[in-house]
Amino acid sequence: MPLRYTKIVCTIGPATSEENMIVELVKAGMDAARLNFSHGSHSEHLQRLKSLRKISEELKINISVIQDLPGPKLRVGKLLREPLKLEEGSIVKLSNSPFQQNDQEIPVLFKNLSKLVEVGSEVYLADGTIRLRVIDISKEWVSCRVELGGLLTTGKGINIPKAKGDVSAITEEDIEHIKFGVQNEVDYIAVSFVRSARDILRAKEVLKGFNSDIPVIAKIEKSEAVENIQEIVSSCDAVMVARGDLGVEIGIENVPLVQKKVIKLANLLGKPVITATQILISMLSQPTPTRAEVSDIANAILDGTDALMLSEETAVGKYPLEAVRVLARVAASTEREMVYQPKPVIDAESVEEAIGRAACQVANAVKAKFIVAYTRSGSTARLIAKHRPMIPIKAFTPNTKVARRLSIVWGTESFYAQESANAPLPDMVEEHLKKLDLVRQGDTVIVVAGMPTGPVGSTNMIRVQKIEK
């Protein structure tokens, strides 16, 4: 498999739940797995999680598991007859009911719909393919005119750009999911429909209540999130550009520039960023991608994304393995043309930031084989990865959770390494590199760590180390 810096996240679903299929996904290039809690039961997800952990141990590869929460997603309730055809110009009522009563009604699985809209509000159904305009409101229903018709089925999503009110991104259902995630030690929790930093802080508050410090991913898919992007990225641990709902919220023509803006900000702040949704959507039913999809993948990599995520492609698609292989090939090909662009060390904001920049520059100058980060929290590896050195990063950590979490960080391969009170850190690092058969006599590596072992996150040492024997 060619050298690849960009990470691949695969959604595990009905098409990829079997252990043998997960093994093949890993061999094809999967670095992290997403469990979508909008679908499936806790027992189904637990079985998938157990399979991932077992395979990770057997293959000696750290696979990160992302628990993706449903959030306050508005969905169409149970329809009497499907599909329901909505004609342009017709009038329909959105009702606070789980079941449809007649063909002029659309049931909505959300009790306070009327509080989210006003006369004139746009309402989108089925990933934005159907557009309604609010013309009247009561406590029990919202009357709308169909401006763009189409076919509607049970369970389809409902989007209200710039919805009124303050709907928390963390629902009671999400709290139960978080409890499950904590009990089963998922590696990240992704919060859906984030509007502001308050949603991230609320998720962390819930996690703290369960005595957990699982990192939180902010999914950027609301127009309000775009408006509050600086505070959101500053408060979260990682970011996901969820382009599906985002396109409905802000208009598809605005998504590419927002994607670039979010990735640039995440890079600047050293937060891992995942680009998601419709990466290879044509491969749901076709064995090869379109040229436009390949260009989209390459541009996301050039933008600076840490990872690319497959959703339906691997969850329910006909060609999940082929989709992963395409991502791996395009990433490797694109990265060959990327050039490391150093920034001056003199304007670094902190000692840690200066060390991260300097490590990349020294590694580039001496043509090091690897940059080796010894880290307990993962921050040292992230400090280096944010500068996108075109030299692989090998992270050693005494924390197995950190080792798994680093699997979504650009250019970083992580390994468990127990701390030793007797061996000096450089000797310990060299021993691990040799044991893993990663170096040969004469190779040069750059070692970055905190010395002496101090507070978590205290990166303060660079060493140029030549492998002597």
Which features characterize this protein?
469 residues, alpha/beta, TIM Barrel, M1 Pyruvate Kinase, Domain 3, 7-stranded mixed β-sheet, 22% strand
SSE blueprint:
Blueprint: E1 7-11, H1 19-28, E2 32-36, H2 42-59, E3 64-68, E4 74-75, E5 84-86, E6 91-95, E7 105-107, E8 122-125, E9 130-137, E10 141-148, E11 150-152, E12 157-159, H3 172-183, E13 188-191, H4 197-209, E14 216-220, H5 223-227, H6 229-235, E15 238-242, H7 243-250, H8 255-269, E16 273-276, H9 291-303, E17 307-310, H10 312-315, H11 320-335, H12 351-365, E18 370-374, H13 379-385, E19 393-397, H14 400-405, E20 412-416, H15 425-435, E21 444-449, E22 461-466
Parallel strand pairs: 1-2, 1-17, 2-3, 3-13, 6-7, 13-14, 14-15, 15-16, 16-17, 18-19, 18-21, 19-20
Antiparallel strand pairs: 4-12, 5-11, 6-10, 8-9, 8-12, 9-10, 21-22
